[in-house]
Amino acid sequence: MDVYLMICHHKTTIFIEAKEMTTVHELKTVVEGILKRSLEEQQLYKDDQLLDDDDRTLLDYGLSSQSCCPHVPATVGLALFRPGNGTFEPLHIDPFSSTPELPDVMKKQQSGSSSSEQALH
Q1: Secondary element (H or E) of residue 106
Q2: Is residue 11 a contact partner of residue 30, using CB atoms and an 8 Å limit?
């Protein structure tokens, strides 16, 4: 079964479709191909739990097709190794921005267009 994931690192989000039986190692290999960071330089997290066993599957960590749907993908955090000081950075995911509220002028146009559209039908 398919599992849909958002791998998030600061402001970077990678959408991935995988199988429930995909291992953590295989998932890190996909990330390596995109970000050009080796498997050893990656730490993946589900919630605050480190996915530290590369041989375990996504399903072993609770990432199933029932909980990771296309319209509600699971968030997997990514922390990268900092070669400068020899440690992994703390896990950090920036929240998505929200759209600003419509100005009043636009709200009136929207409500007016919907009533005129209804009159046409």
Answers
A1: helix 104-120
A2: no
